[in-house]
Amino acid sequence: LGGEPLHKRGYREIQHKSPLNEATAAGLLLHTEWDRKAPLCDPMCGSATFLIEAAWLATDRAPGLGRSFAFERWQDADLDAWRQLFDDAEARASRGAANLPKLAGNDRHPGAIAIAGQALQAAGLGGRIELRHGDCADFVPPFVTKRVVTNPPYGDRLQADDGTLNASWQALGHFLHRECEDAIAWVLCGNADLTRNLGLRATIKMPVKNGPIDCRWLCYEIDGRH
């Protein structure tokens, strides 16, 4: 029916070297029970997949609105019915555009930030989500952080050494302790040994698959006692 796999939304022309599947990102966001209004940031945003999917959820934008589907070329397709559905989706996205919450991302790799900027433009979000380049440990969001979602490196795809991975997770832990008091953070992890670098205890550990990798979607409730 679709032709191209349905997770391909049309905004990712260039792949980050450790991309998160768009549909997986949307599903993980739904599991956080985020109200789609609270400010949200990703301190290790990569190509901004979490941020784009969060923006589209909040603005009621259908994820397939910017792409075509194979069935549109079928001889017996009811294109009038399809046009009605498409027009309704466009109207919902237009109404929802004003509901975009505060969103921001950061990454220490300039190449990732460049790809993220291109993806935001392709997703119709250019200039509406702030991106910063720098180490996660030094990231200061442009708003009071209430929700954090992130997919830090855990080795399977980036093939970094243990020292580099531990340092990345220590930087994330520093950010969470410093900037995220009274916030809820959700962190995707495919290597349980790395989580000790955060200095936090997860309240939810949800088994998920990131492609072939067995992961946990971890929830951390951060308060002033940490």
Topology:
Blueprint: H1 22-31, E1 40-42, H2 49-58, H3 79-96, E2 103-107, H4 110-122, E3 130-133, E4 147-150, H5 162-179, E5 184-189, E6 204-210, E7 213-221
Parallel strand pairs: 1-2, 1-4, 2-3, 4-5
Antiparallel strand pairs: 5-7, 6-7
Helix pairs in contact: 1-2
Report on this structure.
Helix 1 (22-31) crosses helix 2 (49-58). This protein starts with 21 loop residues before the first helix and ends in a 5-residue tail after the last strand. The chain has a seven-stranded mixed beta sheet, with helices on one face. Strand 2, helix 4 and strand 3 form a beta-alpha-beta unit. 31% of the residues lie in helices and 17% in strands. By secondary structure, it is an alpha/beta fold. The longest helix has 18 residues, at 79-96. It is globular and about 60 Å long. It has helices at residues 22-31, 49-58, 79-96, 110-122, 162-179; strands at 40-42, 103-107, 130-133, 147-150, 184-189, 204-210, 213-221. The protein contains five helices and seven strands; from the N terminus they run αβααβαββαβββ. The model has no long low-confidence stretch (mean pLDDT 92).
